[in-house]
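Ligand: iron/sulfur cluster. Inputs:
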Amino acid sequence: MIKANSKPLGEVFGFIENCKKVLVLGCGGCATVCQVGGEKEVGVLAQALRLKAGTEGKQIEFLENTVTRQCEPEFVDPVVEGLGDVEAIVSTACGVGVNHLVERGCPVPVFPGVDTVFMGSTLEHGEWAERCAACGQCVLHLTGGICPIARCAKNLLNGPCGGTTEDGMCEISTPENPVPCAWAEIVERMKQLGTLQELGEIQPPKDWSTARDGGPRRRVRADLKLDRQEQKVQS
Ligand code: SF4
Ligand code: SF4
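Predicted complex:
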């Protein structure tokens, strides 16, 4: 899932300090799971903003709402249509949600309440790590299911760089941010699976045009679009 961190309160307040009415809008998807932008966090942020406004001598009304997902038109459109005299939105969804609100014609400014950081998994409660960089051409079948794109600091495809420490850590590791070497993990995993010999095959340079490096990506599923059109015709 997408992971995010809350922005500092002062930064968020700075976005809306000259407004009279602000909607704090949460997301019931990833932002809820990583506990930065769901209903509970919307309540906490809205209350903190009210207190901040009070101490700054500003009269600002803060509304609260949390939709199922901010990345889907069916949940976002009713919010956009029902804004009334709201002058700005603070979104606690990931950056996709903010972009989507604008794309759906939101007539007022939409400000980010969180910093979106990566796509990752939960290591333990309260700890997440990046696991996929959405490169658009998955190579996990070659690497024992461990991603050399998202987990190797140099995105290497043909083995480690030589900077791996004796205890299997990446050379970028620090005591505050220990980073296992992805290639040390790949080798161990493939040993365990009995497929280590497959690493002897040299992989050609990756086609990065399917990744973010090829520009903003778009995906069209003609079968789903057709299904939708047929449903509309029948209804
Ligand atoms: S190879 Fe690409 S698609 Fe597969 S997990 Fe890594 S970044 Fe994600
Ligand atoms: S030490 Fe390992 S994870 Fe770090 S850059 Fe080198 S190969 Fe990649």
